[in-house]
Amino acid sequence: MKNANAAAAADTRRAPLNFKEGFAKFLFFVCACLSIIAVFGIVGFVLYGSVPAFRDIGVFQFIFGTSWNPNYDRYGILPMIVNSLIVTLFSVLLGGIVGIFTAVFLAFWCPDKIHINYRGNDPKRAQRIEKINRVLHKINLRTIFDQIIKLLAGIPSIVYGLFGLEIIVQMLSGMNGGRDGKGILACSLLLAIMVLPTVTSLVKNALEAVPESYLEGALALGNSKAQAVFCVVLPAARSGIISALILALGRAVGEAMAVIWVSGNRALFPSGLFSNIRTMTTNIVMEMGYATGLHQSALLATGFVLLVFVLIITLSMNFVPKEYRGGKGTRALLDNTGEREIPFRKQGALQDVLFGISVFFAALVALILAIIIFYIVINGIVNFSVSFITSAQAIDVPTLMPSLLATLELVGITLAIALPLGICAAIFLNEYAKPGSKVIKVIRTFIDTLSGVPSIVFGLFGMMLFRNTLGMGRSVLVGALTLVIVVLPTIIRSTEESLHAVPMSLREASYGLGASKVRTIFRIVLPSAIPGIATAAILAIGRIIGESAALVFTMGTAFTFYGDPSGAGSSLAVLLYTCANEGLHMGEAYMTAFILLIFAFVLNIIVYLIQRGVRKKRMN
Amino acid sequence: MENEKKNPNEKQKKNPLEIFDFSGENAIEVKDVDLYYGDFQALKKINMVVPKYEITAMIGPSGCGKSTLLKTLNRMNDLVEGCRVEGLITIGNRNIYGKDMDLSALRKNVGMVFQKPNPFPMSVYDNIAYGPRTFGIKKRSQLDEIVERSLRQAAMWDELKDRLNKSAIGLSGGQQQRLCIARALSVQPEILLMDEPTSALDPISTGKIEELCAELKKDVTIVMVTHNMQQAARISDKTGFFLLGELIEFGTTDDIFTSPKRPETERYITGRFG
Ligand SMILES: Nc1ncnc2c1ncn2[C@@H]1O[C@H](COP(=O)(O)OP(=O)(O)OP(=O)(O)O)[C@@H](O)[C@H]1O
Ligand SMILES: [Mg+2]
After folding, report:
1. Residue B93: CATH number of its domain
2. Which atom in ligand 1 lies closest to the alpha carbon of residue B225?
3. DSSP letter at A393?
4. Identity of the residue in A221, A231, A345 whose CB atom sits nearest the CB atom of B107
5. What is the Cα–Cα distance from A74 to A64, expressed in whole angstroms?
6. Residue B167 bridge partners (DSSP)
7. Are A21 and A516 in contact (CB under 8 A)?
8. Higher pLDDT residue, A123 or A607?
9. Do B17 and A344 count as a contact with CB atoms less than 8 A apart?
10. I need a labelling partner for A497 at 20 to 30 A (CA). Which of A254, B107, B188, B238 fits?
């Protein structure tokens, strides 16, 4: 934090603010403000699109109406609101509990190395076990678990959707006596799996930020480790845990593509765990494709109501107390000095059980990932067909190549725009703005808000701005422009982190040689932040490749694509959606899911390698 | 090990926390103790006897192993990966590195106060009630009594009795440290280990803690690491001087400070190296 201050000081000492320098600063500032503009733009355009619905239907009738039937112009979304909220609460409850326990395991018990102890005296066997141990020592269990969590977070929504449709729904159908397995429970389970990585990694960070001295203090009082962890450290991390759960709420309520096939799609109030439902998000995806006039406006209004919920959830994050502020009322004590004997007894059985639960849940998380991967890989291989890859593209038959090309163009265009903007914004935040100043706080709040906006709402915004207002058609370009806003927060954040890690002394050395601030930034600071910027770009690529809800209405769902970015096409994730949506091209859907999984896997590995490289370099 | 066989403690079966027998003269006996952090030997053949209800000070230059020895006495060193202890440490007639040693029981009886005050982020009351609660005390009246008794022992009762439900994090550094002492006392330890308990505090708070220790030694045995020679001279009964992992000299504080037997001790006391 002090670094930037010193930078500012060093700068004013050296370089008088000439025009060039001032202009650069202004440019960085504008980029930093893009998040603010984007949030207002999203709220404004979606609201603008909802005005006819609110006007003609009435805000009250729209929100509290209980029947949705576009054929009779009946638009009431209360059942969908209720469904969304129920599913969100259930999933965050489930995913939250599993995630918190998994995080506890990772932070306190996950061993670095696995080791087999052999106590017998058969020398041959001892030798063999020694060999196995040598192999085992090369495996770092903690790193593996970190990667498991990251991979779970990197799997695209639509792939989760496919998994939910095929595995969760089938499983639940068995539980439901062979009837339909879709509905509240299926949605909740699937969303729980999806919020798991978010909760786990955030809670783990919060736990690791708790001072070691709390753990030591509790142990020194005679606590078992489980008692110390669950009674002192976990409560001490409460603000971080609450923030993680709030973030998960926002994720779950805004998720569209994953639940689209497992909800059952009936806009009614739920009556049980297996009642088919429709949520706010699925309502939009299901009907936006063919909606016009008031119907379209009603769908936009659904998006607006969803956005309001998400904004409330995101903003409530600011009200989580950061640290412990005094307890609840404690009754006044009697002045009482009786020397009665008070018997201390050994306790801690409950905490031992909780410890057992953490191990179990961590194993469960690994198992879930294994099942997902196994399922997708097997189906991808079984359904492999050469024609999907080699045959010429056609309007009515899905083929890989056009989608691959469209995806590559989408990634290229999005990054070409978003990366410079994001980097400039990060430069302003880290190199120019005073740390802790109002400007920074406001901009940060908006970046956080932007990153909490659901994909489907980005899609609505892109549709309203580029198609309905600017008159552009569905195209790769429009999709890319929409995704620029989607990936901006990710890029800004990780770039900022890497800028922050550049040692102050480098900047000072550059100023000392008489370099200007802009020159220092571009010649010294940015080059040393390249690994971080590369990480930012890869995270963004992951998000772009996995994105579907924001693209369906902006880039389109066409099976064909000839390379012109002003034409419509479908990205891989959207291709998976279109193929599986009507159940006509399941084989192609599986192959696409397999490819998406490989992308997620490879991107994760690249990030891991970059970060390991950075760590090694720092140690040397 | 042998001691355990000789003294079959009847309470042992009833309550696993009360396995120690402090009826003897000495609270702690350290015999030929070597300690290794991996390959590095941090303690070399330490022999030391800590008498009951006295204050024993450990002094010596930085890195000589004072904290290390202190942490072996309640086995906080177990947390350090690669740490290995050889030799015999007997507390309350039990080999604390014995196979069946119950760490909860050991640490309940051998409390610890750290260099940096570490109150939990809870209310004052909950901080002190925390230990007893984890040993199964649930009744409010009993907890109240323990809280009050511990705060009185730490000479903080009058200061804090109206702020029991305020956050302990909001207290001053000196108050926090005395609260930590009260917290350690809440589980009624026989021995209190203190690792430079006043090094992070101002002189007035330091004075208060020294007074407190002088008062406390009626009920508990205190082993204190300190960098402050005057402090050791003022409050301790016995002093041990450490150098490079060895206990160079151990004796009554008077002897160590007025007529040290070893030249290293004398040089350190008179400030010629350290
Ligand atoms: N966890 C550890 N791992 C490896 N070596 C350690 C560890 N803790 C301490 N040491 C080493 O053991 C030696 C003794 O350390 P110790 O902390 O006991 O010294 P000290 O006398 O308490 O010093 P100070 O006065 O600075 O607190 C030092 O050389 C130190 O580097
Ligand atoms: Mg020390």
Report:
1. 3.40.50.300
2. 22
3. P
4. A221
5. 12
6. B123
7. yes
8. A607
9. yes
10. A254
The pLDDT of residue B272 is: 55
pLDDT average, residue stretch A579-598: 93
Predicted local confidence at residue A334, as pLDDT: 55
pLDDT, tens only, B230-250: 899 999 999 999 999 999 999
The stretches in chain B having pLDDT less than 70 are 1-14, 272-274
pTM: 0.89
Buried b vs exposed e over B27-61: b needs ≥16 C-beta within 10 Å?
bbbbeebebeeeeebbbeebebebebbbbbbbbbe
B62 lines ligand 1 (CB under 6 A): yes
Instruction: Single out the residue of A572, A388, A555 nearest to residue A478, CA to CA.
Output: A555
Contact A326 B166 (CB under 8 A): yes
Alpha carbon separation from A360 to A102, A399, B100, B226 (Å, rounded): 8, 42, 28, 45
Does the predicted interface ipTM exceed a cut of 0.85? yes
CATH topology of domain A81-276+322-382: MetI-like fold (1.10.3720)
Distance CA A406, CA B249 (A): 80
Q: Confirm whether B47 is domain-assigned.
A: yes
CB contact under 8 A, A345 and B15: yes
- Joined tokens for residue A600: 């997620």
What pLDDT score does A392 carry? 84
How far from B191 is each of A34, A343, B28, CA to CA, in Å? 62, 18, 9
Ligand number, closest to the Cα atom of B78: 1
Asked if A236 and B164 come within 8 Å (Cβ–Cβ), the reply is no
Between A and B, how many CB-CB pairs are < 8 A?
Answer: 140
Geometric angle at alpha carbon A339, from B218 and B16, rounded to 5° = 80
Helix (H, G, I), strand (E, B) or coil at A244: helix
- pLDDT tens, position by position, A4-55: 454 444 444 444 557 888 899 999 999 999 999 999 999 999 999 999 999 9
Whether A223 and chain B come into contact, CB under 8 Å, resolves to yes
Phi, psi torsion values for B121, nearest 5 degrees: -75, 70
Q: Within a domain: residue B259?
A: yes
Angle at B21 between CA B20 and CA B27, to 5 degrees: 90
Smallest CA-to-CA distance from A550 within A256, A278, A260, A295 is with: A256
From B33, B34, B46, B67, mutation site for ligand 1 pocket: most ligand atoms within 8 A of C-beta: B67
Residue numbers in A near B142 (CB within 8 A): 342
If one counts every other C-beta atom within 10 angstroms of the C-beta of residue A271, the result is 11
Please give the structure tokens belonging to residue A258. Answer: 């994953």
Q: Is the CB of B64 under 6 A from ligand 1?
A: yes
**Kind and range of the H or E element at A100?**
helix A78-104
CA B236 vs CA A32, A613, B240: distances in Å: 62, 53, 10
User: What's the domain range around B236?
Assistant: 2-118+188-269
Give the ligand 1 atom nearest the CA of B64. Answer: 21
Question: Closest residue (by CA) to atom 3 of ligand 1?
Answer: B37
Whether B181 is in a domain gets the answer no
Tally of structural domains, chain B: 1
B84 within some domain:
yes
Instruction: Report the pLDDT value the prediction gives residue B14, as an integer from 0 to 100.
Output: 64
Residue B113 and residue B180 in contact, taking contact as beta carbons nearer than 8 Å: yes
Q: Nearest by CB to B126, from A327, A340, A345: name it.
A: A327
- Name the residue with higher pLDDT: A331 or A445: A445
CB contact under 8 A, A223 and B104: yes
